[in-house]
C-alpha cells in the first residue's frame, strides 16, 4: 500500500505535466486544427456556446431515454453523426472488417473500456467493436482533443462516453473512473492510448485488473513506460498487445505521414515558399526521412544532422549533406527537429539564426528546441497567428517559432483519415486476437502484433488504392518455404525501429 | 462619341460579370484566405466590426490632418503597418531597389495612378514608388481583395487610397474615378491590373489619356483583351509595358508557384493524403507541369490529358501516362484542370466518378469544370467547409468540388510573398523604364520588358537564396559575343508561352 | 573570285581543326561507342580487318552490278542490313511516315545530296526518302563516325554512298565532291549536318547552288555560322530550314537526352557511385537542367554555377545551390561543364581539385575545360581506359579527365534511337515541305519548321508511348481560337533557347 | 564415415550446378564486365594470351624466390599492383582502419584462409589483414571471377594465392585444398564467401575444423544453407559471424546499389531510353525499391507486382500501381524481376509481350524468368551483343533477354568500389572481433555483427562524403539512455529483411 501511495505522488507529478502531455506522440493522430473544425457550423456550435455549465453538472438524456454518459451537449448528436459518416468514407478497411466479422460476432461478451482521443475516426472504431458484439465504455485520453459532437453521437446510440473538450485534470480522472466503475459491469478488455486508463485500473482496481483478458496499447509512452516496465517488474498479470511498434503504424505514422504533414504544417502556419529554401533537418530516422524527402522534392536545399553513423550514411546516399548544426546555423531558413532528443537547438544557436528564419519540431516532444531559453526579458514574443510566434531580438531580428516547439504535425496540420484507419483496424484486430486467443497462446507479457495480422491489416487497405496482390502458386510457395497466405516475412524478421 | 456610348453598354455587361472576375488569373496573387486573415486580430477587426456605414459616408482624417483618401477605418493603420513590415521581410529585392535608387529619385515628378489588389505586398511596392520620388493615388482592382488595415496604413502616410473590402459595383468605379479626378493633379503614369483603370481613363478622360507617358499592365486580360486590342485598332496613344509575359513572372506564377499551391490548396480544403492517390491532371502547360511534379513527388499516381502533341511528348518523357479523360475517369481520386479551356470536365464525366473523388481547377477560370451542369434538382449540394462542397448523387455518391470550380490556388491557398516580390519589382522597373526612356525608344505600342531588365529583376532576388552569380571574363564575353553584364539571352529568344 | 580565294584560306584553317570538329554538337547524335560496335562481330569485321587498301583504290560492285559508290567493303552489306532492321524497331514514326506518304510519293523528282553521320538510323531516314520518291547521294559529315557495314548496305540497294570510317581530310572532300559532281545528275535538295556540303556547293558550284530548291540543316554550326551569316550577307539564294532550333529537337537532344546520357557516360567510363557524391554542374541551360535532375535523383549533392540571373533563379527554385566554382572546387567529386563557353574550368582550379575527382564536359566543345593547360611536363597523363585519362600531379594527386574534355555524351555514351528518330523525322518533313511548297511561301532566307510540322513530328512519336491525345470539340476550339488540328501554340510563341 | 560419403555425393550434385553458382548473390560484388577489363591492356594480357598451359603445370617463382602460390602468370604482378592502387583510392575506410590498427597488430598470430572473389578490392582487404598481423592463404570462390594480374600481385608480395580465371571444377577444389593443407601451418580463422571452403574444412579436416577460432561468412548461401543448418544440427563447433545480414551490407548491396546498377545494366546492354517507358518491377523488397526509384526518377512509368500486402502498401504510398503481371504484360516495355522466387515470368507471359520489349532479372538467380521455356524449336535465339539475346517468335516478334535471365547487375553492370569497401571493412572487423573476443563471448553459433561494429563500419565511410557526425552531450546521452559513443540503436532493433 505504501508503495502505491508513493507512486501516486509520482502520478501527481505526471498530472502537473498535463499541458505538455499534449506533446506526446500518440496524440498526433487525433487532434488537429482541421478535424475539430471541419464543419464551419461545428465550430460555431462549440465556440459560440454560451453554455458554461460543466457537463458533470448537467442532466442529459439521449433519445432512447438513457443517461449513462457525460458529454457536452447530447443535442449535437446529429451533427456528430455526419462527421462520423464522412470519416467512414476513408475507413473502408474498418467497414470491410465490420462486414466480414459481423456474422460471427467475435467480440460477443467483450466488455471494453477505452481511453483514446474521441474523434470521428475513433467513433468508427468504437461502432465497429459494437457491431462485432462488444459492449463499450469510453473516455478521452487528452483533455483538449474531444470532438464534442462526436461524443454526443456515440452517446446517442448508447455507447457510454465520458468526455468533453476542455476537461480539468479532475474531470479527466473522474471520467476515467466513471468508465470503469459501473454497477454490475466488469470490463474484460482495455484499449488504451497513453497508459492512463491501464494505470488507473492497476492502482485502483487491482482485483478488476486481474480479470482483464487483454490490454491493447498504442502509444510509445504507454508501451515503453508502463507496459514493459510493469512486465519487467513482474507485475503485468495480463497479456498486452503493443500496437505502437507494428510495421504498418511505424511506416505510416512516421515516414509517409510526415512526408505530407511537414509541408502542410509549414504552409498553414507561415505560407513559406519551399523552393530554394535552405533547411536543416535534425535527425534522419523515419520522421526525418519523410521530412527531407518532401522538402527536397519541393526544391528546398536540405542538410541533415545525425548522431548515428548508419543513418548518416543513408542520408549521404539519399543526397543530403550531413553537417553539424553549427556549420549551417547562420545560413538556413528553416530548422526542423526530428531526433527524439532534447536541446537539439540551443539558445546559442537560435541567437545566430537569420532574420525571418523558421524553427519547428516534428520529433517527440517540446524538449527538442530549447524554447524555455527564449522566455527571457530581452526577447519579445509576438503572436502573429494561432501557433505562430515571432520571437524578436533586441536588434529587430525575428525568428518564427511554430507551436511553441511542440509537435508541428500535431498542432498545425492534419493527419489523413486513411492513416487513422490503419491504426484503428490494428487496434480492432488486436482486441479480437487477445479476446479469442486459446488459453496459453499469450502469457502475462507484452506482444507485438503477429506478423500475419500486420499483413492482414495491410491487405484490408489495399482496395483503397485498387492494388492487386499477386498470389503464390503452390510450387512457388514451396520453393520459398512459405504458406501461400502468408506471413511473407521470415520469422527472424522484425521491424521495430526507424533506420 | 456615339461609339463610346455603345461601348459603355458593353462595359455594363462586364460589370454584371463581376463575381466571376474573381476568377481571372491576375487575382491569384492577392486574395487568399490567409493573407486576409494573417493576424487573427485582423480578422476580428474586420469581421466583428459592427460598423456598417459605407466608407463613402464617413469623414476620416489621418494623423497629419489629410482627408484625401477613402478607406474602411483609418484607425487601423497601425495594425496595417505591422503587416507591411512583415511583408517587407520577404521582399528584399524591392527594398534593395528602394535603397539603390533612393538617391537619384528616378520617379521624381511621376504622378502614378494605380489599380491593383491592395495588400501588404502592394503596399511595399507603393511605398517604394514613393521613395523613388513618385506621387501615388491608388484604388483596388477587385471588390473583395482589399486588406482594410493596409489601406489605412497607406492613407496614414499620405498615399491617396480609395478602396475597401466589399465594395459595391458602384463603389468600384467611384473609387477609380476619385483616383484620377483630382483638382490640380494630372496623372502621367498608369499601373493597372486587369485594365479597368486604363479603360476608364481612355473612355472618360481621353485628353488625359494622351498625356500619360506609359502604362504598366500585368494581367492576361489587361494585356491581351485591352492593350493589344487597342494597339491593333490604332487607338493606343501611349506606350505600354506587358508585365504579364515576362519570363520571371511566367515561371514563378505558374510552374513554381503551382508546384506548391496545388498541395497546399488540396490539403487545406480536404486533408487528403496524396500518397497512392490516382490523379488526372488536364493540361500539361506550365501549370500542369507544376501540379504533376508536386503530386508525383508526394507519391500520387498521375495521368495527364493533353491536346498538344508536343506537350504530350514532354509528359511522356517526364513519366506520365497521357490518356483521354474517359479512360481513367472511373478510377481517379482527384481531377485537376489546368487547360485554359472550357468544359474540360463534363457532367457526363462527373457522373462516372468514384464516391469521394475530388474535382478542382488550377486553370484560368471557372469554365474548365462544367459546374453549371451540377446545379440540377437531382443532385444535392452540401457545403462542408468554406470552399468545399459535397455534391451528392441520388445513390449517395459524393463528389467533392473545391471553390465551386474557381481557381483553387486563388481561393484555397496562399501565394508566397517572395513571388509577389518578383512581380512587384518588375512593375517598379517597368514604371521607371517608361518614365525615363528617351523620346522615341518606345512608340505607341505594347512592349515586353527588355531582357536586361528581366535579368535585373532576377538578380535582385538571388540574394534571398544566397546565390552567387559567376561573372564572365572579358575573354569569355568576347567568345560568346555577349556583354559582360548581360543580357545573356540572344535577341531571338523570347519565352512567352508554356511548353 | 579573289574573295573566294581568301575564304578558301579560311576554310583551310577550318580543315586543320578537324580533330576538334568531332566536338561539335551535331555530332552528338550519331557516333557513340556502342552504336559502332553494337554487334560484337561488327567490331571484328572492322577492327580485325587486315585490309588496309583505301576504298578509293578498290573496285567494288554491288549485287546489281552497280559501282556508283565508295565504301569500305560492299560484302558487309548483309550485316549492315541487320543493323538497319534493328534501328527500324525504334523508329516507328519514320516507318509510319513512310507508309502514309508512300502512295503519293511527295519526293518524286527530288534529287537529294546528303552529308550526315552514316549510321543505321540515318539509313532508315535515307531509305524513307527513297521510298517517298527521292534519288539520294550521300556522304559523311565526320571522318570517324561512319558505320562501314551500314554504308555497304545502302550501297547494296543502290544509294550512292561515299563514306568510310577513318577518312583522311582529302578523302572527306573527295567524297563530298563525288556526291555532287555526277554526270547528268543535278541535285535540287541538300540535307546537311555541319554546313560543309552546303559550303562546298556554294563555293565550287555556284550555278548549281542556285538551282537548289531547299536546304535542310540541323547543326548549330551549320545554321548559325553558315546559313544565317550567308543570309545576312544577302548571299543565300535558296530557302533553308533550320532544324536545329525545332522544339522537339531542343528538348530531346538536350534536356531529356542529357538526363540519361550524363549517368551513362559517367558509369561506363568510371563506374563511379552517384549516391552521396558532390557534383558541380557549370551552366543551367537545358543540358545543365538535364544533368542536374538526373544526378539529384541518383542521390548526388549538386551545385550549379551560372552567369545568367534568370537561369540562376530557376536553379534555386529547383533546389540547387548556385555558387561560384571557386567556392566548391576543393570539395566536389565531379565537375561537369554545360555552358557553351570556354575556359570554364581553368588550370588553377584543376590544381585545387581533390584526389580522385572527375572532370568532364557535356557542353558544346572541348574548350570548356582548359585541357591544354594540363599538357605540361610536371603532370603525368595515364590512359586507364578508352576515353579515360588520369592526370597525375607531382604529389600523386590524380584527376580523372574524360574524353580529353570533348563531349562526354558523344564519346562515352549512346544516344537512344528514339531521339534520333525525332530528328530524322523532322528532317524528312522539312525536305518534303521545302520541295513541295508553293512558289513564294519561302523566300531566300532561313526558316524554322512551321509549328504545325513540329507538332506533327511529335504526334508521330506518341504511339511509342501508347499516349492518347485529347481532341478539341468544335465549341472548345472556338473558345480557344484554335484550329481543331493545331497548331496549338499561339503565333507569338517561339521556343528557341534553353531557359 | 558413411554419412560423409553420402554427403560427398550431395556435394557432387552441387558441383554439377557449377555454372548456375555464378548466379548467387554474393558473386554480384565482384565479377563485372568492367572490373575485369578495367585496363584495356589487362584485357589483352588475359585474352590474347597464347599461354594455354594450366597454372598447375607451371613452375613460377616470385621476385623473392617464393613459390608457395599458383596463379596464371606471376609476371603480370606489376599491372595488378596498379589495379590495387586504384582500388585503394575508393577504399579509404579500409586504409584508415589499416593505419589505426597497424600499431597494435590485432591479428598477430591469426592464420587466415580465405575463399572469395579475387579482385583488386579483395586484395586491399587481404593486404589490410596482413598489415594487421595476419598470415593469409587465399583461393577463389568462383571459377571465372579471378583477376589474374591481381592474384599475381598478391603472390608477388608473399600472399599464398591459389586461383586463376577459368579454373575447372577439379582445379577449384585443388586450390581450396592447397590453401588449407600446408605443412606446418594450421589455419585458425576462415573468411568464406559461399561456404565451399568451410564445407571442405568441415568434411576433410574435421580435427582442423575444431581448432578454428572463428568463421566469417558473407553470402546468403553460406550463411543460410551452411552455417545456420550446421548450427541447427548441433555440428557447428566454432563461432561464426554472419556478415550477409549486417545493416550496411543490406542497404548498400541492395537498395542503393541496385538503384544505380539497374540503369547501368540496361543502358550498357540495350541503350534503351528510360523516359516514357512502361516498366513492371516484380517484387518490392530492397532491390525492387532501388530499381523502381531509379526508373521513376528517369521518367519511366513503373508498375509493381507483389505477394506481400505490407510491401504492396509501401509501393502504393511510393506512387506505384500494384498490379498482377497479367494486367500489364501486353503493354510494358521492360520487365525486371526482383522477387527471389521462381517462374515469376512464365512462357505464357513472354508470349504476350510486345515486340522489342526487354526482360531481365535483378533478383537472386536465373530461376525468376522461365528461360528454359524459351529454348524451344519454334523460337530463334539471336545473340546481338555480349549478354544480349533477341528471342524471335515465328511472327517476327523479338523479345530482348538480358544475361540469359541471370543477375543483370552481376553480368552487365559494375559495383562501385565504395560498396565493396563497406563489405570488406565489415569482414576485417568481424575477423578482428572473433579473433580477439574473450573466451565465452561467442558460443558455437552464428552471430550478427554487433551493432556497435556496424556503426563503426559506417562511421569509417563517412569521411568519403565529408559528412560530420553530431556528438551527444552528456546530458543528451543520459536523456536518451545511450552511451555517447553508441550503439545508437536499441537492443531490440534488428534489421535483417527487406521491407
Structure description:
- Four copies of one chain form a homotetramer.
- Chain A has an eight-stranded mixed sheet with strand order 9-8-7-10-11-14-13-12, covered by helices on one side.
- The N terminus and C terminus of chain A are likely disordered.
- Chain A folds into two domains: about 240 residues, Adenosylhomocysteinase-like (Rossmann fold), CATH 3.40.50.1480; about 160 residues, 3-Layer(aba) Sandwich (Rossmann fold).
- Chain A is α/β, with parallel strands linked by helices and about 500 residues long.
- Chain A is about 45% helix and about 15% strand.
- In chain A, β2, α8 and β3 form a beta-alpha-beta unit.
- Chains C and D meet through α13 and α19 of C and α13 and α19 of D.
Topology:
Four copies of one chain form a homotetramer.
Chain A: H1 2-16, H2 18-21, H3 33-36, H4 40-47, H5 77-89, H6 92-101, E1 111-116, H7 120-131, E2 135-140, H8 148-156, E3 160-162, H9 169-180, E4 189-192, H10 196-204, H11 206-211, E5 214-217, H12 220-232, E6 240-242, H13 247-270, E7 278-282, H14 286-297, E8 301-305, H15 309-317, E9 321-322, H16 325-328, E10 334-337, H17 347-352, E11 357-361, E12 380-385, E13 388-392, E14 398-402, H18 408-411, H19 417-436, E15 446-448, H20 451-462, H21 474-480
Parallel strand pairs in A: 1-2, 1-4, 2-3, 4-5, 5-6, 6-15, 7-8, 7-10, 8-9, 10-11, 11-14
Antiparallel strand pairs in A: 12-13, 13-14
Helix pairs in contact in A: 5-7, 5-8, 6-7, 6-19, 7-19, 13-14, 19-20
Amino acid at each position: 500500500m505504501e508503495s502505491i501511495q508513493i507512486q501516486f505522488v509520482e502520478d501527481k507529478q505526471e498530472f502537473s505535466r498535463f499541458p505538455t502531455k499534449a506533446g506526446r506522440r500518440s496524440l498526433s493522430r487525433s487532434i488537429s486544427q482541421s478535424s475539430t473544425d471541419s464543419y464551419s457550423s461545428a465550430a460555431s456550435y462549440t465556440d459560440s456556446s454560451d453554455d458554461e455549465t460543466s457537463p458533470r453538472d448537467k442532466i442529459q438524456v439521449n433519445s432512447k431515454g438513457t443517461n449513462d454518459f457525460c458529454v457536452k451537449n447530447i443535442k449535437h448528436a446529429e451533427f456528430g453523426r455526419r462527421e462520423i459518416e464522412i470519416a467512414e468514407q476513408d475507413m473502408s478497411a474498418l467497414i470491410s472488417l465490420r462486414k466480414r466479422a459481423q456474422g460471427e460476432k467475435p467480440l460477443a461478451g467483450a466488455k471494453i473500456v477505452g481511453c483514446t482521443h474521441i474523434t470521428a475516426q475513433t467513433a468508427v472504431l468504437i461502432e465497429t467493436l459494437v457491431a462485432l458484439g462488444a459492449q463499450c465504455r469510453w473516455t478521452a485520453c487528452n483533455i483538449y482533443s474531444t470532438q464534442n459532437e462526436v461524443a454526443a453521437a456515440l452517446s446517442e446510440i448508447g455507447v457510454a462516453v465520458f468526455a468533453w473538450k476542455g476537461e480539468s485534470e479532475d474531470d479527466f480522472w473522474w471520467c476515467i473512473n466513471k468508465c470503469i466503475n459501473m454497477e454490475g459491469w466488469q470490463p474484460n478488455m482495455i484499449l488504451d492510448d497513453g497508459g492512463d486508463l491501464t494505470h488507473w485500473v492497476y492502482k485502483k482496481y487491482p482485483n478488476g485488473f486481474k480479470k482483464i483478458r487483454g490490454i491493447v496499447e498504442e502509444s510509445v509512452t504507454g508501451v515503453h513506460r508502463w507496459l514493459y516496465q510493469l512486465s519487467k517488474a513482474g507485475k503485468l498479470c495480463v497479456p498486452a498487445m503493443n500496437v505502437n511498434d507494428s510495421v504498418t503504424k511505424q511506416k505510416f505514422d512516421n515516414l509517409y505521414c510526415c512526408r505530407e504533414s511537414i509541408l502542410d504544417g509549414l504552409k498553414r502556419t507561415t505560407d513559406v515558399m519551399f523552393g530554394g529554401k535552405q533547411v536543416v533537418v535534425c535527425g534522419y530516422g523515419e520522421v526525418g526521412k519523410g521530412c527531407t524527402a518532401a522538402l527536397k522534392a519541393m526544391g528546398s536545399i536540405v542538410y541533415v544532422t545525425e548522431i548515428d553513423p548508419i543513418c548518416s550514411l543513408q542520408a549521404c546516399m539519399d543526397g543530403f549533406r550531413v553537417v553539424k548544426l553549427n556549420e549551417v546555423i547562420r545560413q538556413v531558413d528553416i530548422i526542423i527537429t526530428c531526433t527524439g532528443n532534447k536541446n537539439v537547438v540551443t539558445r546559442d544557436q537560435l541567437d545566430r539564426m537569420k532574420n525571418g528564419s523558421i524553427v519547428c519540431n516534428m520529433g517527440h516532444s517540446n524538449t527538442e528546441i530549447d524554447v524555455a531559453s527564449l522566455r527571457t526579458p530581452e526577447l519579445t514574443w509576438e503572436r502573429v497567428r494561432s501557433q505562430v510566434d515571432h520571437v524578436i531580438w533586441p536588434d529587430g531580428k525575428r525568428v518564427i517559432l511554430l507551436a511553441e516547439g511542440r509537435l508541428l504535425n500535431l498542432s498545425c496540420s492534419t493527419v489523413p483519415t486513411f492513416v487513422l484507419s490503419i491504426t484503428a483496424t490494428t487496434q480492432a484486430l488486436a482486441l479480437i486476437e487477445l479476446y479469442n486467443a486459446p488459453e496459453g497462446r499469450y502469457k502475462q507479457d507484452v506482444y507485438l502484433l503477429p506478423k500475419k495480422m500486420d499483413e492482414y491489416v495491410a491487405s484490408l487497405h489495399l482496395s483503397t488504392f485498387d492494388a492487386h496482390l499477386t498470389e503464390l502458386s503452390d510450387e512457388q510457395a514451396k520453393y520459398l518455404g512459405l504458406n501461400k497466405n502468408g506471413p511473407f516475412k521470415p520469422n527472424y524478421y522484425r521491424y521495430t525501429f526507424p533506420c
